[in-house]
């Protein structure tokens, strides 16, 4: 069994009836008209429509809920594929450029606001001596004389 063929372009809706006769009775939401196998409705307002076409005792019905717009552009699959591919190539190109330009800066010191100027290396002052761990000086061996090694 054949089906309705619906074509939408801008705000024009073209409906082809599955009954193949020369003169067909069309009915769209109560409006009746006689036409050939195709019915063209110009300036469709995207409202749902009950469509029927009949010839003799044969009647076919359809509920049409087509969204149309005046300023829409139709794109084929090749154009959409081309747009997506170009977008991906540009994105990867920018990513590679950022990688290579940032790669050169890794070894350099940043001159940001929080960095201090790097001149000569400053030496640390000697640590404060701890009296418990003073080094043995010449002539003071008797302090440590009681710490003799024990034989096991």
From TrEMBL:
It is found in: Cell membrane. One of its GO terms (biological process) is positive thymic T cell selection. One of its GO terms (cellular component) is alpha-beta T cell receptor complex. Pfam families: Ig_5. It comes from the Eukaryota. PROSITE patterns: ITAM_1. GO terms for molecular function: transmembrane signaling receptor activity. The chain crosses the membrane at residues 77-101. Its main location: membrane. The keyword Disulfide bond does not apply. It is a single-pass type I membrane protein. Residues 107-139 are annotated as: Disordered. Keywords: Cell membrane, Immunity, Immunoglobulin domain, Membrane, Receptor, Signal, Transmembrane, Transmembrane helix. This is T-cell surface glycoprotein CD3 epsilon chain. It comes from Scopus umbretta (Hammerkop).
């Amino acid at each position: 069994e054949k089906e309705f063929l619906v074509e939408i372009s801008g705000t024009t809706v073209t409906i082809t009836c599955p009954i193949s006769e020369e003169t067909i009775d069309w009915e769209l939401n109560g409006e009746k008209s006689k036409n050939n196998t195709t019915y063209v409705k110009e300036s469709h307002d995207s409202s749902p429509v009950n469509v029927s076409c009949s010839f003799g005792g044969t009647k076919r019905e359809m509920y049409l809920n087509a969204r149309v717009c005046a300023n829409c552009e139709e794109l084929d699959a090749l154009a959409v594929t081309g747009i997506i591919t170009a977008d991906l190539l540009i994105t990867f190109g920018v990513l590679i450029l950022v990688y290579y330009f940032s790669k050169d800066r890794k070894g350099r010191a940043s001159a940001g606001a929080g960095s201090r100027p790097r001149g000569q290396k400053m030496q640390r002052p000697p640590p404060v001596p701890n009296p418990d761990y003073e080094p043995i000086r010449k002539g003071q061996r008797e302090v440590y004389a009681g710490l003799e090694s024990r034989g096991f």
